Structure formats: C-alpha cells, structure tokens
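Lay summary

Proteins are chains of building blocks that fold into shapes. Our project writes down both the chain and a compact code for its shape. Here are two examples, one after the other.
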Amino acid sequence: MSIRLPHLRWWALGHLGLCVGFAVTTVFSLRHIWTVPILALWLLLAWSLRWGDATQRRARRRAWPWSLLPLALWWLYLFLADSYGKIDMGAVIFHLQAGIEDHGGTQRILAAILYTLAALAMLAAFTWLVRADHRWRLHERVLVLFLLAFNPLLFGITQQGAAIVTEDGAWLDRRYVPPGIEAVPAVLPNLIVIYMESTEGTYTDEARFGNVYDDLEALGERGVVFHGVRQIENTGWTTAGMIASQCGTPLMPVGIFEDGQFEPLEYVLPGVECLGDLLDKRGYRQVYMGGASIDFAGKGIFYKNHGFDAVLGREQLSPRLDDPSYLNDWGLYDDSLLAMAHERIRRLASDPATPYVFVGLTLSAHPPYGYPARDCRARQGEFDGVSILYSVECTAWLVRRFIEGLDAEGLLDNTLVVISSDHLSMKNSAWQRLIAGPRENTLMMFGNGLTPGRVIRREASMVDVLPTVLEALGFTVPAHRAGLGASLLSPAQTLIERHGLEYINARLREESALQARLWDNLE
C-alpha cells in the first residue's frame, strides 16, 4: 500500500523539525527534551504557512538545493559537539596527525552511523521541500550564507588560521622559559604521577554531584590541594593535558598548512625538553603505564621521545591479565591496571640507589558513561550503564586504595605523589550539571616534605604543573618558571593571573613562533 503525498509531506516536515530541534539544543547545550516544543513550533509554522503544500509549487524543475553541503557540514559539527561538548580543532588536527587507530570509541562509531542515516534523511526531506515550495527555493540561497557564517566548526577552522595574519605571532614564545634545573636536592626523591581520565576537580561540589569525590578529598588531606587550575586552549584531551603538565606548554599541533601534515608522526614535540628529559639526565628510571593503547593519539611516541625507559599500554599489559576477557572498549579496567602499577612500583623501589618516575593513566571515568571496574561494582552495587558519577566515584576510590596500599608497604618513603586530572571532562551523562558553574582540574601533591592539609587557591592552568612538580621534588628552577608555567608553590605570577584566561586563549589561537619551537627539527 503506497503512502499518500500528504503523509509524505508531514513525515518530511516532521523530520526536518526534529533536526532543527536537535541542532538548537546541541548548539546551546540545552536538554534534548527541548526538541519536542521546538518541533511543535516548527510544525505550527509549517501548517500556518502551508510549507510544502501543493498550492505552493510553481515549477517542476528538479533543482538541487545549494544548502546540501553546508547542511552536511552542520551535521558533522553536531556529531562532534554532541560527542565531546566543546569542539577543539587542535584536538581534531592532532589526532589526525598522531593516529586514531586502537581507540575505544565503538559507541561513537554506532552513533556516527545513526547520525549519517539521520543526515541523509534530512537532506532528502530538505530537497523535497525546496522543490515542492517555491518560497523555500527563493530564499534557500540566503540560507546557505547563514549556514556557512554560523557553523562553529568552520569558525574554529578560521581561528586555527589566525596566526597567518596576526600582527604578533610570537607573544607566547617571548614568555617561554626553556625548562631547566639550577640545583638538585642532596637525595633525589622518587615521583609517582597518576592522571585520572576526565576526573576534574569540579566534582568536589557536593550540591551538584553528591559525595563522588570524597575519596580524593581524603587523599588531598595528606598534602597540598590546588584549586583554580583552569583549562586553556590545546590542553583539553589526554595527550595534550599530559604534555601541558610535563612540558609547560600547550600541545599546538603541527601547522594545518604544513606539507605532510597528516603523515603519521614519528616524534612528538622534538623541539622542547620536558619533565622526562630533565629527570632522565639526573639518572631516573622512568615508566609510563596506561590501560589504553599507547598507539592512540601519540601517547607512546611522546613518552618514548622524552626519556621514558618503559612505555606500557593495552598491547603490553593485557597478556598479563588472569582473565584475558576482562577488558573494555579502551583496554584494561582500572582495578587491573592499578594492581599491575603497584607491582611495578614495588620493583622500581627495590633498588633504592636509583630514583624512579612512575606515570599512570586511569580510564574509569572516560565519557560519556565511564568504565567502572569489577571491584567498584562489588562495592557500589550494580552500574546502570549511564551514570558517569558512578564511574567518577569508582576512580576516586580505586586511586585512594592504590595510594594507601603503597603507603602500607612503605613504598611512599622519599616519594612525591601527584594526583591530577588529565583534562576537564568532555560531554558526559552529567554534562548539564558540569557546565552549570565554574570548572577546574584536579591537582594535589603530597609526600617529600609537603605540609599536609594545605590548600592553595590560584588562577592557573596545566602548564603551571611542571615547575610546581620540580620545586615540590626539591629542585631549583630559574625564577620559579618552566615553559609557560610558574610554580604554584612560589610567588611567581601565572600567565592567567597576569593576563586572564580569555586573553591567553586568544593569544594561543594566533601564536606561530611557539608552535614552530615545539616542532623544531621534526624532519
């Protein structure tokens, strides 16, 4: 039985209305339930203005709308925005350069398929409307200009090219201090750094998130807790967050207009020295361990390029599991990872004559819902599959248990411990609550003589972590600065304290000299 034309008309208009509603709620970070009243308003306008009615057809010319490509670009933007929240073009470019194989985003692959089907249906419906209603055909070329002018994705691309026409592309480079060490302590302390995927300090707000952060607050009482560590441009994904905190600089990708820009990278930031380089020269053994693949987004390349002796990820660690099937989309669950990390630190500490660095990366709180470990489910009850707060609580408890286990064995003697988020969370199931107020990264340090119970509130960013860690280790650094960062244990002003977050972000979008420094000698 064939569908009559009036039914086709309202099916097409209804799908267009749903797409308009979804776009509005995504762009303005509204709850998607608002799609329903937007759809109702759209259908009311369609009914009152008789969009697509047979009386509005003036010609039978089967022209293709000019808006099809701009509309397709909007769908690409909506997919990225709905997946990650704010779109970071630096992240998009770097992941294309460094490699996106072995990622764990299988959920987003399914979402991409659904987006593609919805987009194709929308383009077909819009083509029908333009052909069926001469008014839409007349005004459709104006719509093209609107779609191109206000697409945030295209706006982000133009911002990436701002350095080409800026009057001062070396503002940040003039403020860059090559990381260095002027004096070392009599006894070199060990260093343990745990990056917690997307577990930002914003979760301390119990009014919004309850008690999910309590275990991390308990850990913070051991030493110094830093509040006010913001996120600047080019530090909002895992590799970028680790690089910012270890190199004192945002991860500015290889220029988007460089030859061979999307060839696989063999080096990451070859033009600068980072924490691993500085400590490698002082005889430290250095190990990185994370549950996800080290081939994703250049993590493995970065650590191998900058002084680490062992770089271990999913490929190297999964064969060690007692249950080979106990894996998630990204890799090892955090209870498995931290158990292996405990054993590795025990081995590193067995040679007290050689100081060590251990860097670990969790993944329990990876957006949008997290991957809570089996041990957490036994403690917290059944996981509903969607609550990121359940996964954040899991991360907090596992990290606290890990640190307390090391301490119980005496493995934290002469050791500085740094607990940090890698970056602010991308879009997750608590997104509306996260963006309802100011946000900050997690950063705490304890051990190696730091005063317990101290709280430092300063406007800072992840680039300030490098000189702070160096001074917490007992090293003397030039003028309390390294890279673009200033030690938060010193009176030196941070860039954000001096200039403000928005100004620094604007300068990052125009900077070219620092970008050239980071990638110097890439060939």
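And here is the second example, written the same way.
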Amino acid sequence: MNMSSLDWLEVMRKEYFQSYLRQGGSAVKFVVSAEEEVRRALPQLFSKMAKNDAYVFAKADAQYTKIHMVDRLFHKIAKQIDWDGLAHLFLSRLLVENGYQVPDDRAAFSLQAIAELNDREEMLLRRELRSWLEKAIYRDSGMCQEFRMAMVRLCLAQLDSGDPNPFLANAVKEWLCGELRLISALKDALIFQKVARHNARDMLASLVYWVRLVGKGGLILTLDISQYMVVKRSKEPDAALSYTAAAAMDAYEVLRQFVDGTDELEGCLIVVIAPEEFVKDERRGLNRYEALKLRIWDDVRDKRRQNPFAPLVRISKDSASPGVAASGFTQGTPVANGEEMLHRRAIEALRAGVPNRDAVQVLGCAQPEIEGQFRRMLENAQRSVTEGTTTKGILLDGGFGTGKSHTLEYLQELALEKNFACSRIVISKETPLYSLVKIYRASIETILIPGKRGGTLAEVAGELNFQGPQYADFYEWVHGPSGELDSRFAATLFLYERMANDRELSHRLVRFWSGDPIGVVELKRYLQACSASNPYTFEKISQTDLALQRFKFASRLMVASGYSGWILLIDEAEIIGRYSLKQRAKSYAELARWMGGLDASSYADLGYKSGLASVIALTDDFQSAILEDKGDREKIPNKLREGRSETDVLLADQAEAGMRLIESERARLVGPYDRMIEETQEKVRTIHASAYHWAPPTIPSVERLSSTRMREYVKGWITEWDLKRLAPEETVDLEVTPLRPSYMEDAEFETPAEEDQAGVGTEDVASPTELVGAQVG
C-alpha cells in the first residue's frame, strides 16, 4: 500500500504549493516511512520546493528540539527566519504602494537614502512612515499584540541600518528566538512577556500571517518526530535528546492542536515525518493517543492504493503508485475566488473527519432540537447576570463519528453571532477535566472574541468603559461583601482602572486574571502609591479556588465589556474513562459543576449570575461502558466514603450528582437516516466539484448499516472522488475499519495535580522582572 515518495511530493507541489496554500489554505500532513533515507530526505526536498515557489521554510527534528514544548518549537522556527529580510520586504512594498521609490541595493536602504531619492525632508518622512506602520501593522488584528510591536520595531530598524541596535531590533530578535535573558530589555517596545506555552501558538499563527503579508506564499514546516519512538537512551554525552512515553503523548497533543487549528492559519503546511513505529508501537505510537489517531487515521481507504490527499500517508522510495503518476495529472487546481477556497478548506477538514467553521458553513447542522435547546441556553446565560439565576449546561450524547464535534463547531458560530465570547476545549492529557486550573488556562488560550481574529482577555479588558453603567455594576460586584471573590480581584481591578496609563502594570494585571501569579508585596506597593482608601487584605487561597473565581470574574468582565457572556464548548469528555478512580470521581464532580448540577446560588456554581454556560460532548456508550460495566456508579461513592473524611464524602456526593446527570440529562444527537445521508452526500459532492473544477460522478454510498457513522460516509465519498479525479479509469474498492474510543485506564493520563493544591499565600513576593516574565503553568 505504500506510495512512491516522489509521486506524493508531486501531488503536494501541484495541488498545495501551486494553488491551495498560496491562496490561503492550510493543512497538516503525516508522512510515515520505514526508510530512514526517505525521512531524512523529505525536509531537504520540501525546502527546495519552498524556495522555488517563494515560501518560507523551517524545520524541527525531535533529536535536537523538544517538539512537545510548543514554545521551544516556536523558538526553533524563529531561529531559521530572516526577520530583517522580511521586514525589509514589507517596508519596501509599503513605500512603493504609497508612490515612493526605493534603492535597488538593500545595503543602501536607509531613511536618509529614501528621503534623498524622493526629494523629501527626512524628519517629515519618518513621521509619515510611522503613521503608515501604525495603520498597516499595529492596527492589524491578524497578529497578536506582542508580535505586532516586534514587527514595527524591526521595520523601523531597516531605516537606520547604521545604528548597532536600532529600535531594540537585536533584543526583539533575541526575544523571538528565546535568547533574551531579561524581558525588561523590551519594556520600551511595550513587550512585557516572554514567548511561553500560553502564547507560542498565537505567535506562530502571527508569523504565518506576517509571512503572507510581506508577499511570500506562506510557511512550510517539517517536524521529524522519529526520536520520540526511540526507547533506549544513548550513552553518548553529545547524542540526541531522549524522551519518555509521557513526552511522546505531549507531542501528540501539540500535533492534535495543530490539526484542529488549521482554520486559524492561512498559507501554512505542516508536514509531520514519522517512522513505522508511529503506527505500530503500542507503547509510544499513535494507538496510545486516540485524540490524534481519530483525526488522521485512514479508517476509510481503498484496498489497493492510498489517497495522496489523506492526512496520513505511507511512503517509500521506490513503491509503485497505481493511478497517480499515470493519470496525466500535470498541474494543480487553481482557486478562483473566496467561495472555492471556502470549499477547499472544508474538504481538507472533512478528509480528516475534523469539522472546521468552513465545513459547518457549507454543510449546516441537522440537529434542530439541540440547536433550539442551545439558543434557549444563550438567552438564559444573558439574563443570568441581571436576574440572578443559574444557567444550566447541555450534555451532548452521540457515538464516535456521529457529529458531536461538528455540532459543537456549529453551536460556537451561533454563540459568536449572538455576541458571546467562546472557548473550545478538547479534554486531553494536557487538559484533564478534573483540573479546574488547567481547564481555565485552556479556556483563556482558546478564547474567540466576536468580530476579531482570535482574541485575548487583554483585548476584552481594553474595551471596558470606566464611565459606563455596565462597568459600575461590575466594579460594585467585585468589591461587594458577598465574599464570592478573593480581594486580589478587587485590588487588581482598582489598579487597572486607576493606573490605566501604565502599560506594563496593565499587562501584569490582565495576566493575573488570565492565570498567572502576582506578587502580594507588589500589589500592596502599588495600592499604597495610589492612596487606595479600601483596605485590601490578602489571605491564602488554593489554586483551584482561584481558578473557580477567575472563571466567574472573567465572565463578568466580558459582560462589562459589552459581550453577552462566555460559552465553553467541552469536547471529548469521554477520556475521563481512562483516568484512575479518584480522578474519575473528580471529573464527575466537575461535570456536575459545569452542568449547573451543584448547589444552586452557591459559591461553587459557575453558572450562577455569571453569564457563563457550557456544552459538554460525551460518547453514547459511556454510561454502559463506565458507569455500569466498570461499576463507577456504585464503586466510586462507596470507595470515597470508606475513609469517611469530610473532603471525600463531599466529593462522593458531587461525583454522584455528575453521574446522575450523565444518566438523565443527555441531549442525544440524531443519527444518520436515509434523507440526511442523501442530502449530505449532495452537499459534499457540490463543494468537491467547486473546489476542484470537475464533475464528481455519482457513486454508491458506503454500505448503509445501523453501525455506519456519518464520518465514515463523508470520508468514503471524498476518498472515492479524490481517487477518481486522479485516475478516472481506475476502480475504487473502499474498506472501512471502524474506530471506537478506548476506556482502558492509562497511567500517562494521570497528570500530577500538585499545582492544583498548591496555595497562593499572603507572602507571595515577586520582583517586577519575575512578574513580567511569569508563565502560565
């Protein structure tokens, strides 16, 4: 079944490099080969293709780069980018677009030379250029704020090349590459935090956007993960890095996030290179991490040949590839307009069985009852703040491949249309349901703000109107006597308003709201400087309680900033079946919290008066497999009550509440029926035709059985049309290997939760530099 590496590369060059990527498409491809020679050659071949087609290329090899740490990965990429060259390209284009001539020789490129060439006064030209850069970069929300500030500095530095460190350009490049020792060196550039786990993904998305903004086709990135499959540690002192199985799982989670995030990127191709162990090794391979496997596995495939467009392909140096090279496939399919690109991006997502906003837009959602229930939930969430009520959550119930993720994506678009902020959270090893601290961090990192490209809590806070009635209500609630919030929130909100002109302090305060620590000594010093009349006192509080209060504070902050509320969409909650007994108990308790199933009007009820509501997706066999067959319904409460400690008894009660909700409150997705299948097939056929400028033939559907999932139908249609388009004369004989989630307990998912119990004390002392550089986690 292996296909020729050259045949696959030719399809990638023609269909992706020459059309799809250049017009703004993105994709993640996994390439498996047993031949080390092939794996080693791929980065060089992609580098050559990128150079020929005016793309920026970067690579990372797990032998030398910890790919499972996304900040380290970004730094590795940044070290391969010609930052000055890109800034020079952008500035040159900007000048030409505004009617100016620029020197042909880059070495002669300076503000003085440009002023002389265009008969302008240098000082006035500098002022004009700053204004252009503000409009073209600083006001462009396609990039995160720190990245925009960095690019402005690099562009300005191109005008004064004689200065050894113009406009902090060297410090900016050290910051991008992870080599800056003290972040305080960039204070004048209004950059106050290092690139870390919580912002590295936004930085990478900003880089991709910047690359296209300067006129390049996009970013091509190869990631060789072969080293994660190596079990034995080398005895050589200078040998490659070695990894535990847990690190391999972390790497798969990073890759899973890339797969799910392709619709946030434009013009980006990520090629993941792996050995055969990746698909065979039970200890370190793909089978160990279902969240990634369910997104890329070729569960619907032709019996004789591979689909070169599939998210996972197996290649070798000399394999024959029937129906690819022989098809006369000479050039890529052009993308003529925005609608065609929408359809291409939708098809690309559906190939992997991962619905994105493009797929949802063209296919819609055939779940009217759930849509109606969700719309009512939005109305209740919006009223909850003013009416003092609790918003009950929704628990989606559906089998694997029946459309839970598709439905969540559709509901997210509805919420954004209703002016709600949204966070999409996939339960995983990195984000376990039982850890409120990590769920909060994931919620902030994935937040979408209506009308903006991505979003951060800083952008939400920046929209506060200190003179408006909504802010007055919010301020009164935060400072109120109810005891719902720790005094750190009241103190930081007071300082945020009073010290609004101190950009560094404002950043630090918002980072505290987002999950970072903050020093009490520093808070007291600033409060004293502001002559605060309110006697703020700070007591010790656990990280879990602090996360709980952050959820309520952030949601009310969004309402005060003019948004309707905050919706959390929690996917793949069935992974809790793989936790240990105690962690499953905590997860059931958290599920009850998110569903509004704990004591109404209580401190622990996140849906009470907050504008916050959630939807949780769970597999339809979870109750029978875990609550009944594994015995959680009886085993967990009995085990917890054996010790008779107050904490365990309370957890037992809360876990029981969560399990009762699973048994009684599920909103079941409608499974595929004949009319739904036929209508969906026609929609997919129409968008495939539009995306590739051809007429897909009428084909028989994947065999209609009660066990056949909609995912299998859709992947089957697309696979057959892809192969027919490449080789019309070849027959297609599909086979389906049903994928089902596993509920076997896995110790690798039992992430230590010490940080959840660690308290925040009254003597938390941190210097300004430490606070500025603080990282989530």
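What can we say about the second shape? The longest helix spans residues 368-387.
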